[in-house]
User: Fold Cytosolic 5'-nucleotidase 1A from Nibea albiflora.
Amino acid sequence: MVKMSLDPVQVMSGQVKELKVATSSNGDSRGSWDEKEEFDQDHLGLTTKPKPALETVNARLRELYPQSEELFDIVLVTYNHAHVGIRLINTINHHNLFIERFCMTGGSSPIGYLKAWHTNLYLSADSEKVREALAEGIAAATMFMPEKLTEVSESQLRVAFDGDAVLFSDESERIFKAHGLDKFFEHEKDNEDTLLDHGPLKGFLEALGKLQKKFYAKGQRLDCPIRTYLVTARSAASSGIRALKTLRAWGLEIDEALFLAGARKGPMLEKIRPHIYFDDQMFHVEGAAEMGTIAAHVPYGIAQKHNPKQKSSVAK
Assistant:
């Protein structure tokens, strides 16, 4: 099960029994809300319709495994009070959104509910709530929307990840920040056969991988509707091999790996056109958004001390 919440809070949770995606919004309980039949999409944080790619994955899974419950399932986690539920339902139906489950907390923190949902990805516009989720061991990231969205595939869900402090721990990043690039390369060479520790989004990649393997088992590896990408500033020759060995030891597959050796990530993301990209550094999140990619900042690791900025002009 993978759950995702848009809040601008978004939750992807899952024990991969059912892939759940929850949408969440930060509203208050002003009486004026009762005067309308619907919320505006922007008021809910639903600035874009959840991509049809999610529905494509579910439809194909149902065709291959009619009795299986291993699907994406969207759950709306909102700070709003229960009395606005009718308007939420009207809004979801009006925009034909792929959302069937609600969790309306009446102003309380949603973090406890995320654990109850077995959430494996929580996405929110509220960076403090994201940090709270990460502290509780829940994969989480802060969403940033570009001014103009790049068109993405409706038939294939594409998810792109940075490596250090996202899929992996920030161990190597700490060496770089403390001692510079030369020491970083030396450290990676000396530890080439030492696995990196896991980062906050490893579990989310695992959930995607389990669904991919269901397609592989039916001979659809080349036509899988889920595709994953590693987009890292590491150099392939000097430090990339450790990352690949770690993924292999974990039993995880990445469909495409791009080792940029410090080059800008935006142009590559423009080519990939992922539905979402995760990175621990705002510089790369902003670069992705400039290219029209929905980007999510993972406030984890040593980079947050060197670049504490949480808000950005790319956020709406």
User: Anything to note?
Assistant: Residues 8-35, 41-50, 310-316 have pLDDT under 50 and may be disordered.
